[in-house]
UniProtKB/TrEMBL annotation:
SUPFAM superfamilies: Periplasmic binding protein-like I (SSF53822). Keywords: Signal. Residues 32-370 form the Leucine-binding protein domain. Residues 1-28 form the signal peptide. Belongs to the leucine-binding protein family. It comes from the Bacteria. This is ABC transporter substrate-binding protein. Transmembrane segments: none annotated.
Length: 390
């Protein structure tokens, strides 16, 4: 899944300085060096900032040393948000900075562009989002710690059928992730006996969803399966959904996106109609999540979401790999160590599948409810050990 967030926050001078380097330079052999490539500014800056804040939260909880070596993060801002720039930055980190790991990569085109660099340079590469199915097959040096669109949307389809939904109308933004989610939902839902009675792929740039919502209402489904970017698109869709009185018509709304607190708040009372599935909510009740959210809030001043947690899990994989190799990061041995590795994540136990190098982890279904004056995702079902697209 690739969820697009439209961040209006200014990109501060602190992060600009960090784009040069996270820590004071030291001899490479004394360090474990992570080359981090992600948008840290511009329209997608919330992605990279969320990853980076989570990486810092992990280091706050577990220290800046592992296997006897200091950990250095070298930050590169893919501010142009283009695959060519992501490739160039990764190449520089691999050849000039001699990093041990590449990490980050919010968008699928960026991760795909870097796959050839990872293979040629033999750099273990930790993808922290880029959710298109089959991504890890593009290089034997790529592992993904987030999720795939198939994991979230197929889980939503299973939950829907399990809870009596039989007729669904799909509405997705017309780009790779939207299509990915639509296809996985349809395949899984129909395999169980459900029926897709219609669907529309909506222009990614458009925020006028009223005609599509009306079309869906006229089809009289039990539910709509929706995938649009968080932020302005979701706000606009929820406005159309309520104005067209679909809640009163009994049409459920099911999504699979990031419901971080900062994206729920702007939805206001319309948030209560969302049923969502994804790999992480800040409301999960486990000790590691309590540690993570406390550290993240201290650093970022807000709660993390499903995208940001990839930075925390990515650092956990790097640290555990370093421990297994006693700090000696040989690329092929590192990838062998990553295959099947188990980490303690804020989302629950997480395993990297030894065959696909993708995650095997819980997927959570949540309904947004008002608790103590604010809307929050409340988990209503858990699907355990979900693998990519299954």
């Amino acid at each position: 899944m690739m969820t697009i967030h439209h961040s209006r926050r200014a990109f501060g001078s602190l992060i600009a300085a960090l784009a040069l380097s996270f820590s004071i330079p030291a001899a490479a052999q004394e360090m474990i060096r992570i080359g981090f490539v992600a948008p840290m500014s511009g329209n997608y800056g919330a992605y990279g900032q969320g990853f980076y804040n989570s990486m810092r939260a992990y280091m706050a909880n577990y220290g800046d040393t592992v296997a006897g070596k200091k950990v250095e993060i070298i930050v590169r801002d893919n501010t142009t948000n283009t695959p060519d720039n992501a490739r160039r930055l990764a190449q520089e980190l691999a050849s000039r900075d001699k990093v041990d790991f590449l990490a980050g990569f919010a968008l699928t085109p960026d991760a795909l562009a870097v796959a050839s660099v990872a293979t040629a340079a033999k750099k273990p590469t930790i993808v922290m989002l880029a959710a298109t199915a089959g991504l890890t097959a593009k290089s034997p040096y790529i592992a993904r710690v987030s999720y795939s669109n198939g994991q979230t949307s197929a889980t939503m389809a299973k939950w829907a059928y399990k809870n009596g939904v039989r007729k669904v109308y799909t509405l997705v933004s017309d780009f790779a992730s939207g299509i990915d989610c639509e296809e996985a939902f349809k395949k899984t839902f129909e395999a169980q006996g459900g029926k897709i009675i219609g669907g529309t792929r909506m222009a990614l740039a458009s925020l006028d969803y009223s005609p599509f919502v009306q079309r869906a209402k006229d089809a009289a489904p039990d539910a709509i399966y929706l995938f649009v970017p968080s932020g302005d698109p979701m706000i606009a869709f929820m406005k159309a959904y309520t104005e067209k009185a679909l809640p009163q018509a009994g049409v459920k709304l099911m999504t699979s996106t990031d419901l971080a607190d900062e994206y729920i708040r702007p939805l206001g009372d319309t948030a209560q109609y969302l049923i969502n599935t994804v790999q992480y909510f800040d409301t999960l009740d486990n000790d590691e999540n309590k540690r993570y959210t406390a550290a993240y809030q201290k650093i970022a001043g807000r709660l993390p979401g499903a995208i940001a947690v990839g930075g925390y899990d990515g650092m956990a994989v790097i640290y555990e790999t370093a421990k297994k190799l006693n700090g000696q990061i040989d690329p092929d041995k590192a990838m062998a160590a990553i295959k099947g590795i188990k980490i303690k994540s804020p989302r629950g136990n997480l395993t990297i599948d030894p065959e696909t190098r993708d995650t095997v982890a819980n997927m959570y279904v949540a309904k947004v409810e008002k608790r103590e004056g604010r809307y929050v995702p409340v988990v209503i079902d858990t699907f355990t050990n979900v693998t990519e697209g299954r």
